[in-house]
Amino acid sequence: MHDTPIREVMTKTVITIEPGLKVDVALETMRANGIRRLPVVGRTGRLAGILTIDEATRAMPEGVTFAGAGDTLTGGIPDIRDVMTRNVKTLGPDALVAQAAQLMVEHKIGAVPVVEDHVVVGIVTESDLFRHIARYFGEITPSTGDMS
């Protein structure tokens, strides 16, 4: 289980966003797709950073709770490039699941972009790792919430 390559468990269809877009666009993209983080890629496809839903939410001007507000507010909505995390921890597709888990625990992060030649080819998230563990242990019976 721990020696499985990341390419076998990662999410291969990665939704990304450009650094010059506004944070509200990122929030709307995350909410519409049910995700909590977006790799930020430049026009060449190279990874430039990552933006989490928490970072994006904190960056929104006070009182703006919806996407699409634009720059009409005092102070405006910042560009993604001004809010994103730049020093992103990454792994290659041949890295092992154990390496991904260790990296996530060490740096207290919930996902690691998978890159090949600086281009995002996938992302491994906490959910991907839990799914892998669940498959390893076989079918798991859903909990009823009853602790007795």
Pick out its properties.
4 strands; single chain; CBS-domain; 148 residues; two-stranded antiparallel sheet; alpha+beta
Mean pLDDT: 87
- Radius of gyration in whole Å, from Cα? 17 Å
| Distance between the first and last residues' Cα | 31 Å
Strand order, largest beta sheet = 1-2
How is the CATH topology named? Answer: CBS-domain
Count of domains: 1
| % residues in beta strands | 15-25%
Shape: globular
Q: Enumerate how many helices there are, as a single number.
A: 4
Please tally the β strands and state the result: 4
Pairing-aware structural class of the strands and helices?
Answer: alpha+beta
- What is the class in the CATH system? Alpha Beta
CATH architecture label: Roll
Helix content: 25-40%
Write the element-wise H/E pattern from the N-terminal end onward: HEEHHEEH
CATH superfamily: CBS-domain
Low-confidence stretches: none
The main pleated sheet reads as: 2 strands, antiparallel
Describe this structure in words.
- By secondary structure, the chain is of the alpha+beta class.
- Helices cover 28% and strands 16% of the residues.
- The protein contains four helices and four strands; from the N terminus they run H-E-E-H-H-E-E-H.
- It is globular.
Give a short overview.
By secondary structure, the protein is an alpha+beta fold. It has helices spanning about 25-35, 55-60, 95-105, 125-135, and strands spanning about 35-40, 45-50, 110-115, 120-125. The chain has a single domain (about 5-135), classed as CBS-domain, CATH 3.10.580.
